[in-house]
Amino acid sequence: MEAQSSSGLLLSRKRRREASSREAEEGEKLGKIPRCTVGLKHPAPFADELVPADDKPYVRVSMEEAKRGTHPNRPVRVYADGIFDVFHSGHARALMQAKCLFPNTHLIVGVCSDDLTHKYKGFTVMNEDERYDAISHCRYVDEVVRNAPWTLTPEFLTKHRIDFVAHDDIPYSSAGSDDVYKHIKEAGMFAPTQRTEGISTSDIITRIVRDYDVYVRRNLQRGYTAKELNVSFINEKKYHLQERVDKVKRKVRDVEEKSKEFVQKVEEKSIDLIQKWEEKSREFIGNFLQMFGPEGALKHMLKEGKGRMLQAISPRHSPNSSPTREERSPSPTFRLPFFTKTSPPPSPPPHPSGARGYLISEDDDDDDEEDDEN
What we know:
The protein has 12 helices and 5 strands. By secondary structure, the chain is of the alpha/beta class.
């Protein structure tokens, strides 16, 4: 009885894929969906809170009339029932398919109570009030029937003026019957939908049971007590110890990742340094060869210096002819400062050779040097 996903959705997806493939072949780009606001502002009402329908006899529409489209004041009333525990996208897709079965559809959703569900199917995660409220906030639902029956009777169908019943076509065996929808199918009131694979309430509960320790530790961290989680004192301490161990593991993992990043950065920098060192070494070797190589600048400097040294230490050649005495320019005559015109020079002291004093000049000095040489 639990409603699942739908054929209308699969057909619409198939149409979109075919249309997109055609447009891709023609080289056209798909446009985006225009922005609009279609959400409802209020939850769906409950059937027992609505004004009773008129006393006119209810005439059910046929499948052909429903597919062709009915008057706006006479929508096709489609009924879908289920448990809807832990309401998920599979439930929503099933209700969407039921809503889209006909152009003008009024979707009525029946939700079974806790007593019926625990009796025929098993214990639920959410209680009946929570499940009623979850269904009323689904955008595809127009009306909610609380405490829905497990097997649909003609009285129930007439009371709620139901035209068709939507559910997946897989036989639903329960309450001593191989298929609780058998009489609905025989009456021509059954509208099949498709299940959504990969998502169900049982799958979600299986994940929680499989990862029980993870979720218990999660809720203990969020402030729930061991008593609320029905966890013993020893298990509580075990979970706290596991949490500390996991924290240490996470820290070690973070350190390893950081160390890997550091090593990677060091390797990159070392490669850069090696490349720079190779470039500098090539430049240094080139400069060294340019200076000290066989044709380097140092060799030319040494050659130039050797030539200058040889030129400095080699004697100069004397000129072939030296100027004679007559060709020399006369040297100026120097007088002692105390010889003036007003006062006659004092008589020189007697010379041991008996020579008199005479004027001193550069010529006389030159003569004395010549005499000495002779």
